[in-house]
UniProtKB/TrEMBL annotation:
Alphabetical keyword list: ATP-binding, Brassinosteroid signaling pathway, Cell membrane, Kinase, Lipoprotein, Membrane, Myristate, Nucleotide-binding, Serine/threonine-protein kinase, Transferase
Protein known as: non-specific serine/threonine protein kinase
Gene Ontology terms, MF aspect: ATP binding; protein serine/threonine kinase activity
Family from the record: Belongs to the protein kinase superfamily. Ser/Thr protein kinase family.
Domain spans labelled Protein kinase: 64-319
Location relative to the cell: Cell membrane
Presence of keyword Nucleotide-binding: yes
Biological process (GO), any one: brassinosteroid mediated signaling pathway
Upper lineage: Eukaryota, Viridiplantae, Streptophyta, Embryophyta, Tracheophyta
Length: 465
């Protein structure tokens, strides 16, 4: 087991390097800080997460953080979590038996992780640590389509919103198909999620195979594509069949087996099939178009079903309220904006820093007994080497850059001086601290200020920072 784990980690590192070269993005991160790389619509680049960070984000995979519809009984439990950078995430925890091969899991995750689209709840990372197999995606806070259709409490989904859900689902499938990932496993109303703005998104988890042989339907056989029952494999046409069952869900507000629904459609009992909770507030013409489309999706022969572009072309003209926000159509509250951070007046020192007025900053330090390092270090003749001269030259260049407000150069020179480690200079730490502050690196500034204050306790540099 240990050898397999070691080889898998080695593979993941090699994979990260090769993908970085291909995509020019930052390598996978073992921390919760989102790595540098392309960001599309606010979605960070795909990354590798450590198990420790995902445990921290989910309170050690607490049952209180489970968001799976079936709770802990779900075969692959989904947790919500929050990273240190405050981003909410959804973490899907697979069993090792679902993905026994870590290389295959990494391959699948990286393939899906390349997708970025506003119609998807995008995949932003994964973790493969010993027996653990986890996927990390954008968190969708407003429940599933199944919850809003079948288990609603306050109001049902109005007709215009149902048409929007159908279109957005079709657009998501069309995008995945265009990007070379036409297979979606176990597509149903639980796979459609609503984001903060109330827009429907297709969960990216269904783009990952749940096992190496692709056998991934967990729903009742009455809703399973007929060809899947024959050969046990998902095909692009199988996905269209499943999309047809979701269209029926949207029309009826119930999870009706396709065979029963098709019998009603053939008998033209469309009105009997419609969700009674709509109370007649829908267009019969539009409903007929959707019924016909669902019927085509549910054809027994896969070749008789439409493709994703056909779905989009049929559903796009039916959108009757394109300018009404999804929040309004879905009947959810607008997310509260975080209250603005209270503005406290700057101290005189803070005001000098905000103006980058080094003269004023120096004056404040002088008033608090700030002084140079004279007498702090005694050098023997033996220590006066070329390395020492180079180090002192670096200090001199740093001081010149500091006076010229070339903060980046000053940081580089002072770092060269500090890294040698022969002399300990509180002045250099204090000045590099101020340079970091001017370069908007407050954490580094505070570290240096604390070092300066440790070396020379009479200085209150850290307290000012």
């Amino acid at each position: 087991m240990g050898g397999c784990c070691s080889s898998s980690r080695s593979y993941l590192k090699d994979r990260a390097f090769s993908d970085r070269r291909r995509s020019q993005t930052a390598p996978p991160s073992n921390g919760v800080e989102i790595p540098a790389g392309p960001v599309v619509g606010g979605v960070p680049a795909f990354a590798e997460f450590s198990l420790a960070d995902l445990k921290a984000a989910t309170n050690n995979f607490s049952s209180d953080f489970i968001v799976s519809e079936s709770g802990e009984k779900a075969p692959n439990v989904v947790y919500k979590g929050r990273l240190q950078n405050r981003r909410w995430i959804a973490v899907k925890k697979f069993t090792k038996s679902a993905w026994p091969d870590p290389k295959q899991f990494a391959d699948e995750a990286w393939g899906v992780g390349k997708l970025r689209n506003k119609r998807l709840a995008n995949l932003i990372g994964y973790c493969c640590d010993r027996d653990e197999r986890l996927l990390v995606a954008e968190y969708m806070p407003n429940d599933t389509l199944a919850k809003h259709l079948f288990h609603w409490e306050n109001q049902t989904i109005e007709w215009a919103m149902r048409l929007r859900v159908a279109l957005y689902l079709a657009e998501a499938l069309d995008y995945c198909n265009t990007e070379g990932l036409p297979l979606y496993h176990d597509l149903n109303a639980y796979r459609v999620l609503f984001d903060e703005a109330g827009d429907p998104r297709l969960s990216c988890f269904g783009l990952m195979k749940n096992s190496k042989d692709g056998k991934s339907f967990s729903v009742n056989l009455a809703y399973t594509p007929p060809e899947y029952l024959r050969n046990g494999r998902v095909t692009p046409e199988s996905v269209i069949f499943s999309c047809g069952t979701v269209l029926l869900d949207l029309l009826s507000g119930k999870h009706i087996p396709p065979s029963h629904a098709l019998d009603m459609i053939r008998g033209r009992n469309i009105l009997l099939l419609m969700d009674s909770h709509l109370e007649g507030n829908f267009s019969t013409e539009e409903a007929t178009v959707v019924f016909d489309l669902a019927s085509r999706c549910l054809q027994y022969e896969p070749r008789d079903r439409p493709n994703p572009k056909d779905l989009v072309a049929t559903l796009a003209p039916l959108q009757s309220k394109p300018d009404v926000p999804s929040q309004v159509l879905l009947g959810i509250a607008k997310p509260e904006e975080a209250p603005p951070t209270p503005q406290h007046p700057l101290s005189p020192m803070g005001d000098a820093c905000s103006r980058m007025d080094l003269t004023a900053i120096h004056q404040f330090l002088v008033m608090t007994h700030y002084k140079d390092d004279e007498g702090t270090n005694e050098l023997s003749f033996q220590e006066w080497t070329q390395q020492m001269r180079d180090m002192l030259e670096a200090r001199k260049r740093g001081d010149l850059a500091f006076r010229d407000r070339d903060f980046k150069t000053a940081i580089d020179c002072y770092t060269q001086f500090i890294d040698v480690g022969t002399m300990v200079s509180p002045t250099v730490y204090a000045r590099r601290s101020l340079c970091y502050l001017m370069c908007d690196q407050p954490d580094a500034a505070l570290r240096d200020a604390m070092q300066a204050q440790c070396v020379y306790p009479d200085w209150s540099t850290a307290f000012y920072i």
